[in-house]
Design brief:
Layout: H1 3-20, E1 36-43, E2 57-62, E3 69-71, E4 78-84, E5 89-95, E6 100-106, E7 115-116, H2 120-126, E8 127-131, E9 142-146, E10 148-150, E11 157-160, E12 166-169, E13 178-180, E14 192-193, E15 199-205, E16 216-222, E17 227-230, E18 248-249, E19 252-253, E20 261-265, E21 272-276, E22 279-283, E23 291-294, E24 297-301, E25 307-313, E26 330-336, E27 343-345, E28 353-361
Antiparallel strand pairs: 1-2, 1-28, 2-3, 4-5, 5-6, 6-7, 8-9, 10-11, 11-12, 12-13, 14-15, 15-16, 16-17, 18-19, 20-21, 21-22, 22-23, 24-25, 25-26, 26-27
């Protein structure tokens, strides 16, 4: 082989080897992760309980690995976690009595209790009644959900009122509440404030389904002008049946599902993570640069924004659970912000804890 061809061949071989062994592509080592995970864990061996339903506890663990620490043991139906780094507070929703409503927990404290986040009048405005199909006459069919997000400085809250409007108010007073009514906000996905407090991302019904929230995409609300624009348009699988006349887009029957939700703003404000049929993705606030990062759901950013954690279905699925939507267990994965280096994070050596939600704090 001539010397020049040999050099080119050697260069290509070394380049390929370098790409294959590039640290940016290598799996992330869990032991190198910094910060903490606060997660909602559901024990797969615990059946639903009267007056509570499916039991879900709040846990804490080092991101680098370690045993789960139970937090707030009296709160037995926790959901909808949000973390506020400026105040070191974790917001959580408890959907069953006696501790029902939205609460705040100081993440720098080892307290076993949390403080109510809203005044009673605001709680009444933002709380939604969730009725589940009856799996058994002996179990409760009604729970409550208060999905409110605090602005970065804590001076405002955003959530959905009973009519589905996105409303902004002060958490300290019962003063004026400003609502945006052009898009129906969808319960089941907490809104997310931009780090500068100027915008709110939320899941809303698309115009093809304006009367309900069966079809939804991400929207961004400008808090100063109260103008809304649709951020995503990601069609999923075919609906599978002929929609009725209420599911119409630009005069045509819409034949694909739209299920994009769970927005979470990156710490630097440059990205919004979301969940859709294809998995966990990210998109710039101006609607550009959309990427699907991984198969999973519920993306949450690391404190420095360089990584993202999300949930994927576990290898062993539980059977015989009374609520069909809980017939799946979830494990925790972490990847870089571009989706590379995906690694499973060990949660529970017994394999009985399903991760139902997670946030990554410092």
């Amino acid at each position: 082989m001539p010397v020049d061809r040999w050099l080119v061949s050697l260069f290509l071989t070394l380049s390929l080897a370098a790409c294959q062994s590039s640290p940016s592509r290598a799996p992330i080592a869990p032991s190198e992760l910094e910060g903490r995970f606060f997660l909602i864990g559901r024990n797969l061996t615990t059946p639903p309980q009267p007056n509570i339903g499916v039991v879900q506890y709040l846990y804490e663990m080092p991101a680098s690995g370690g045993p789960l620490a139970l937090r707030l043991p009296e709160y037995k139906h926790v959901s909808d976690l949000s973390w506020y780094p400026l105040s070191h507070r974790l917001a959580l929703n408890n959907r069953a009595d006696p501790h029902r409503g939205l609460f705040l927990l100081d993440t720098n404290s080892d307290a076993s209790d949390a403080m109510a986040a809203l005044t009673p009048s605001l709680d009444a405005i933002y709380s939604q009644v969730i009725r589940l199909p009856p799996p058994s006459t002996e179990l409760p069919l009604t729970t409550y959900r208060t999905q409110v997000a605090f602005s970065p400085d804590g001076s405002r809250v955003a959530g959905f009122d009973h009519a589905g409007h996105v409303c902004v108010a002060s958490p300290e007073t019962d003063g004026a509440i400003h609502c945006e009514e052009s898009v129906l906000g969808c319960v089941g996905s907490t809104p997310s404030w931009s780090p500068d407090g100027h915008m709110i991302a939320f899941a809303g019904a698309i115009k093809a389904d304006a009367s309900s929230c069966n079809l939804f995409e991400l929207y961004v609300l400008d808090v100063a002008s109260y103008t809304v624009r649709q951020l995503t348009d990601i069609p999923g699988p075919r609906i599978g049946y002929e929609p009725d006349g209420s599911v119409v887009k630009r005069g045509e029957v819409l034949d694909r599902w739209h299920k994009t939700n769970k927005p979470r703003w990156s710490p630097d404000g440059q990205w919004i993570a979301f969940t859709t049929y294809a998995g966990v993705g990210r998109i710039h606030p101006d609607g550009t640069g959309m990427q699907i990062l991984a198969k999973g759901t519920g993306g949450t950013w690391s404190p420095d924004g360089t990584m993202i954690a999300y949930r994927v279905p576990g290898k062993v699925q539980p059977k015989g659970i009374l609520y069909p939507r809980y017939n799946i267990s979830w494990t925790l994965y972490v990847s870089r912000a571009d989706g590379t280096g995906a690694t499973e994070i060990p949660i529970d050596p017994t394999g009985t804890i399903s991760v139902e939600d997670v946030v990554w704090t410092n």
